[in-house]
Inverse folding.
């Protein structure tokens, strides 16, 4: 959220937590403030969405930076958003890295540790949102941070549990029925299909990309499906 997309106000009533861009891949102080106000209006948990400094590529290009630089970069972004949240008489709830930083930290222990150090140095009560089964979830737990394992509604999976790279033609799910079916399988069976087989996942939060062309339709259908199956959405 807060990435300059037109659907933020319409999406906010449908979600329980929002990852707000902190200015490094998208957004600025104005968009952060607007998105915080929307989140508070709808009682949505507010999270920092730190990224590599890569607005040109929307934070989706791998960057190989020293761990200390990553730690300081993430810490700065958390502090920027947290400061605005406090001004709105609220508290930051979680941190979820964005794009390439998220994907790299899902497999790289050193990068995962740098992110966790940034969170510990900022606010050790913040929850780490990261991909189910990832190095970042494992590192956060080893450093005694609270975690929330994430699954993806609108992305396909590889047999090793990673997300299919966006360069692949089948990386993004575009069909509402397939998206809803994948979400229900992940939540109810704690598995997801990858390469023709069901692999285990831990579904504690479901990600929808706000910049996706079908984000609003997906969110509406997912909420309807979860409620129809008596699954809490808050």
């Amino acid at each position: 959220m807060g990435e300059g997309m037109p659907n933020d106000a319409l999406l906010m009533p449908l979600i329980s937590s929002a990852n707000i861009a902190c200015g490094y891949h998208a957004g600025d102080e104005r968009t952060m403030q607007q998105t915080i106000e929307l989140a508070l209006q709808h009682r949505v948990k507010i999270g920092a969405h730190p990224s590599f400094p890569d607005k040109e590529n929307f934070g989706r290009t791998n960057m190989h930076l020293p761990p200390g630089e990553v730690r300081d970069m993430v810490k700065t972004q958390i502090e920027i958003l947290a400061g605005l949240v406090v001004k709105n008489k609220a508290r930051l709830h979680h941190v979820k890295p964005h794009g390439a930083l998220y994907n790299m930290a899902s497999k790289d222990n050193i990068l995962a540790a740098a992110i966790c150090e940034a969170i510990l140095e900022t606010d050790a009560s913040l929850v780490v949102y990261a991909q189910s089964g990832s190095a970042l979830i494992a590192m956060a737990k080893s450093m005694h941070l609270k975690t929330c394992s994430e699954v993806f509604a609108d992305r396909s999976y590889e047999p090793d549990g990673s997300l299919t790279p966006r360069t692949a033609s089948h990386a993004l799910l575009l069909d509402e029925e397939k998206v809803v079916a994948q979400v229900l399988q992940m939540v109810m069976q704690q598995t997801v299909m990858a390469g023709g087989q069901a692999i285990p996942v831990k579904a504690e939060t479901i990600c929808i990309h706000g910049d996706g062309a079908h984000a609003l339709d997906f969110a509406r259908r997912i909420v309807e499906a979860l409620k129809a199956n008596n699954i809490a959405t808050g």
The chain has a mean pLDDT of 97. The chain is about 40% helix and 15% strand. The beta strands are 17-21, 45-49, 94-95, 127-131, 146-152, 191-194, 197-200, 205-207. The longest helix spans residues 67-87.
